[in-house]
Amino acid sequence: DLLIQGGLGGDSMLFTANALTFNEASVRGGAGNDYMAFDDGSAAGSARIAAGGGNDTIQLGTTLLTAVDVGLNGGNDLVSATGVTLMSASINLGGGADTLTLTTFSGIAQTINGGGGADVISAAIATASALVIYGDTVSSDYYGNDTITLSGALLGQSGVVHGGGGADSITLQT
Fold this sequence. Notes:
The chain is mostly beta strands. It contains no helices and 15 strands. The chain has strands at about 1-5, 10-15, 20-30, 35-40, 45-50, 55-60, 65-70, 80, 85, 90, 100-115, 120-135, 145-150, 160, 170-174. The protein has a 15-stranded parallel beta sheet that branches.
């Protein structure tokens, strides 16, 4: 198991190709505005990514992860992933007006929780099954006006999209 821990300031972490080959790893930012980038092919295995407080940015390049748990706290956070294949994922955006963008996303058993705040969740799905998206975290006392846009291979897939509280916008495109 591998643990990478940022400090209290705004940390910058860049993982290049083949930098993280592991069974299980934890990458944690601190209380500042953190930047974490995982280049194409930089990670394999199971990962826990926790950004901490602040306005954080997490970028995932083309990567195959057997399991990933992304947890963000308060702050207006940005998470983007391109060409990522996830076999089991939990993405919790936390409080704040967060943005999650998934491009050419593939996976099985994905759960995305927007958290409190006016979140923007956009996913271009290549393949997915058992996809569950909540605009607001189920246990949240604060609800935002969320925007959820799903496109791609939606026909014949199983899943749930739940806007939560607030005046949400949900768009499904082919």
